[in-house]
Amino acid sequence: MLIINGKNAVLGRMATQVAKKLMKGEEISIINAEKIIITGNPDSIKKKYHFRREVGSPHHGPFFPKQSNLIVRRAIRGMLPYKTNKGRAAFKRLKVYIGTPADLSGKAESIAVKEIKSSYITIGELSKAIGGK
Asked: Considering the entire predicted model, what is its pTM?
């Protein structure tokens, strides 16, 4: 089982690496989901995600999450063929946590992170902006 620390990792880059490993059959746990970042103008990112929350209807979807761990899961799901049996099985091998659970502390690997020179927003801040806890 691979444990990834999401602190200062860029969401899209991390999600592609995780999706590839899930398709190979690995079980992956991501900790500190609220500290993962999305690069770009924070105001435009908030508008984009707020619009995603409003699209559709409460009965028929699409259902877009507010919690930071579920936002990360949704990003990774978008990179998997989750409508096929193989993709659905890969998605079930993924676990995402807010913070660090006691049983996973001290075992995490960090994904190689480049220094971010542009503006960014963390998933935790984005979650609060769109109505999460």
From this structure: 0.91
